[in-house]
Design a protein that fits this description.
Elements: H1 2-24, E1 33-40, E2 48-56, E3 60-62, E4 66-72, E5 79-80, E6 87-93, E7 96-104, E8 118-123, E9 132-136, E10 145-146, E11 151-154, H2 165-187
Antiparallel strand pairs: 1-2, 1-11, 2-4, 3-6, 4-5, 6-7, 7-8, 8-9, 9-10
Helix pairs in contact: 1-2
């Protein structure tokens, strides 16, 4: 009898906790925003270049903590470009990248990053200036693509597992155990 009351009270408590966890926590807000970028590098051998700009703050202008080329159809220059960039200024307003001005010469980059190539990304959507971007297989020269089809979009962040999930699973396992125990008693 004691166990029945104990498990009933535990079940009520767990269901209240689950409802509270799901309704109170809401969506998790990230302190920084990452953006994916891509462009066709026609001036430097053609092919698609894509990567990610990390560590920007919403409603602010500042430097990215990381600019990384993740893919280049031509095979060169894949890696990190924030070691010692010449220009590193990005503006974000309401979750949208409003301007990007980044140039990194490989010769000035640190050894853990890309030192053989140079990268530039320039986009000022609110002005009439055409976007520019280029990934050059040279450590001190940049040949940008003028009026390039540069795409910069917010990167999808992984969805965190709610902290209450292990507790919910434990409760469900307890219910399953009770049901099995009840079936065994009924069979005896």
């Amino acid at each position: 009898m004691f166990f029945r009351r104990f498990f009933a009270a535990t079940a009520r408590w767990l269901s209240a906790l689950v409802l509270t966890t799901l309704t109170v926590t809401g969506p998790v807000q990230a302190s920084t925003i990452d953006f994916s970028f891509s462009f066709t590098d026609t001036a430097n051998g053609g092919g698609m270049v894509s990567g990610v700009i990390r560590g920007l703050h919403d409603n602010a202008t500042g430097a990215a903590s990381s600019v990384e080329v993740l893919y280049n159809a031509n095979g060169f220059g894949v890696g990190e470009y924030v070691g010692s960039p010449t220009i590193n200024t990005f503006s974000v307003a309401a979750g949208v990248l409003t301007s990007a001005n980044f140039t990194s010469f490989g010769i000035l980059n640190t050894s853990s990053g890309v030192t053989c190539c140079s990268l530039t990304i320039k986009s000022f959507p609110l002005s009439s200036a055409a976007p520019q971007a280029g990934l050059t297989p040279s450590d001190g020269i940049i040949i940008p693509n003028l009026d390039v089809d540069l795409s910069i979009t917010p990167a999808l962040a992984p969805v965190p597992l709610p902290a209450g999930l292990p507790l919910v699973l434990t409760g469900l396992a307890g219910f399953a155990g009770l049901r099995m125990r009840k079936k065994r008693k009924a069979q005896v």
